[in-house]
Design a protein that fits this description.
This protein is mainly beta. It has a single domain, classed as Acyl-CoA thioesterase, double hotdog domain (Porin), CATH 2.40.160.210. Helices cover about 15% and strands about 40% of the residues. Strand 10 and strand 11 form a beta hairpin. Helix 2 runs antiparallel to helix 3. The model has no long low-confidence stretch (mean pLDDT about 95).
Amino acid sequence: MNTHVFDQAIALTATGDGQYAGATSPAYANMVGPFGGITAATALNAVMQHPALLGEPLSLTVNFCAALADGPFAVSAQPVRTNRSTQHWVVVITQTGSSGEDETVVTASVVTAARRSTWSVDDEPMPAVRAPAEVKPYTVPSPVEWIKRYEMRPIEGAIPHTWDGSGSDSRSRLWMRDAVPRALDLCGLAALADVFFPRIWLRRATRVPAGTVSMTVYFHAGSAQLAEVGHGWVLGQARAQAFRNGFFDQTALLWSESGHLLCSSHQVVYYKE
């Protein structure tokens, strides 16, 4: 059985206590370095593989200090405090720089938790949208490789066809899933939370350099609920709240096709004039 390209990209080899070796994947290459979602999934995978893991991820925050260069990298994942129901982790990704010294390129924090059965409700209902079968696939050629790893069907707020400064809103809604079938799991969900193109491109219909500085994902679903999704469609919605002084924020919500809120995400992004 062949290993899915996503699992190949986030694969890690244990080299010590909480120490792992990995390498970037050309299948998830972005304009500069790898797709941020695959880096986030890799950081989370280091925690998921650790033998001291308690429960499942509750939140993941990834700080992109610098773009990963193509090639090998090292990951350190350490539990800094374990409570009765929560566990707190610090993750650091390093690469050997041009000087021969190890340089930090990504820092991350992860909170895992042993979830208990309690009263539960989704207070953010899934919007009423057309079913995936009624929406045309995204077919615009892309200069980056990672977009080919996903099947996307934009409902509204697709990437502009004309860069003429005519944008008026930053909200996008789309159906999405892996292009090659893969059952959704927590690492896959972390990556999906970052598939949205920079909101400033939509709001201004102007293509300016932009990149995520920090990204947080809150997991509302665990492995059991994601297993029900399987390779099904996920509805994603993203919009910005403010653009100011070279930075903007971007909120995303992801629902299963059956209407369950799987995760919410917030990130801050820089842009250049």
